[in-house]
Amino acid sequence: MVGLVAGLALGGCGPRSAGPSAERHDRATSTTQPKPAAASDQNALAAAGRVAVRYALAARSWTPASYRAQYRRQLRLSTGSLRAAVHRGAPTRDQLAAYDEDGAQVEATAVAASRLLQTTTQSRYVIVLDERSVAASQTGRGRFTYLVELQRRGDAWLVTAFSIRP
């Protein structure tokens, strides 16, 4: 079990590291062009970037004691098929016990956020995290890039896809 947990923590896995969007193909689903954001919406649109960073940190930064809270945070910040996938991956007692026994944890720090797309209803960000993983007395460090896609639902921005990028 120790080797498995170490491989998960050091291999870039953990709470929803790539999510179901890894199965998604990046193809346009509509031929209509998104409507650019009006200047009056700029404050609301900046919120999309904050949500993207918060989701990435919730998905990638955890300890055995914080894992459930990070999982719940991902549920609150997601929607659609991503939320369903996160819900299906609820942490089990055995999983948390194994992480605790192994001393597994991932500490992530956001070092960059770049907006790729922004309209009044959708947004796409690249988030770069510095991550330090510990498991079974092994430590790994790395800088990882994630793509975060969001949709505006009422006044809230919610994450629809989260995937690691090479």
Give a concise summary.
By secondary structure, the chain is α+β, with helices and mostly antiparallel strands. The chain has helices spanning 2-10, 42-60, 67-77, 80-88, 93-102, and strands spanning 105-118, 122-135, 138-153, 156-165. It has a single domain (2-22, 39-165), classed as Roll (Nuclear Transport Factor 2, Chain: A), CATH 3.10.450.
Question: Could you characterize the architecture of this molecule?
Answer:
- By secondary structure, the protein is an alpha+beta fold.
- The chain is built from 5 helices and 4 strands, in the order αααααββββ.
- It has helices at residues 2-10, 42-60, 67-77, 80-88, 93-102; strands spanning 105-118, 122-135, 138-153, 156-165.
- Strands 1-2-3-4 form a 4-stranded antiparallel β-sheet.
- A hairpin with a 2-residue loop joins strand 2 and strand 3 (138-153).
- The radius of gyration is 17 Å and the shape is globular.
- The chain starts with a helix and ends with a strand.
